[in-house]
Amino acid sequence: LGLTTDGAEPEPEGDEGEEAHGETPHWTYEEAARWHELAAEFSACGEGLEQSPIDLTGSVGLDLPNIVVEYVPSDATIVDNGHTVQVNVPDAGTLELDGKVYSFLQFHFHSPSEHTVEGDFWPMEWHFVHQAEDGSLAVLGVLVEEGPEWPAFDVIIDSLPFEQDVEDIVYGQVDLNAFMPDLTAAYHYDGSLTTPPCSEGVEWSVLQASITMSAEQMAAFTSRFEEPNNRPVQPINDRTLEKDLSA
User: Fold this and answer.
1) Residues tagged active-site
2) How far apart are CA 192 and CA 54, in angstroms?
3) Residue 197, preceding bond cis, omega within 30 degrees?
């Protein structure tokens, strides 16, 4: 999960973690194990005890309140920020989690997946990033397996920018509902951004149901980057991983 912002508050953009206050120090996924050494503001990447991603195993099954999404079709922009392809849809609606409302900001991909399930990676994972009025973040993770193409991504692929770091329009409205599986039961845990500065306090929900994309669809995104763009899984430490049993 990564961030970039236009406003006063750090908002999620490109990945989950680029801040708007000045330039973010350069980093790569190859050096993920030493992100905390690259800049003082990246210290949480090495010292934090609630880091993301994690392996989704050893969960506690609970009947949790349903995630309530109220998404509406909206205009969008798209950017290749050098780490991922990010689609900004600031008027796309809201997510309500445990009574707290978060406004949608952007979604972006990681390949292979950042979260693993019982140690297994998935070919791709999409992160749907939301922000509450107090600045706190909630991220919805959607795992992808190879299979039939998922039509909603076609408009995104058709709109992929030619240049890096140039924000272009998406040629058609984006309906976030079309990117989701039918079942929205999820794993929940307290985590962090998965890119520097690895800030904690992020509410994570990784859907138990997955979607499919064709190999060609996934390659349209992954072929833009020379290296995988997933952070290795982090220790769960004393956190509880909850699994919603209400599906």
Assistant:
1) 83
2) 10
3) yes
The gap between the terminal CA atoms of the chain, to the nearest Å, is: 25
Q: How far is CA 239 from CA 58, 141, 191, 230, in A?
A: 11, 18, 9, 21
- Are the beta carbons of 197 and 40 closer than 8 angstroms? no
Handedness of CA 41, 43, 49, 53 (dihedral sign): positive
Most distant pair of Cα atoms in the chain: their distance: 46
Task: Judge whether 211 and 144 are in contact, CB under 8 Å.
Answer: yes
Beta strands in 34-75 (DSSP E): 55-56, 60-62, 68-71
Mark out the alpha helices in the chain (DSSP H runs).
35-38, 44-47, 154-158, 215-222
**pLDDT tens-digit readout, 12-41:** 444 554 433 357 789 999 999 999 999 999
| CA-wise closest residue to 239 among 196, 193, 199, 188 | 188
Q: What is the SS3 assignment for 130?
A: strand
**AA identity, residue 124:** M
What is the pTM for the complete model shown?
A: 0.92
Cis? peptide before 228, omega within 30° of 0? no
To the nearest 5 percent, what fractions of the chain are helix, strand and coil?
Answer: 15, 35, 50
Closest CA to 119 of 48, 198, 56: 56
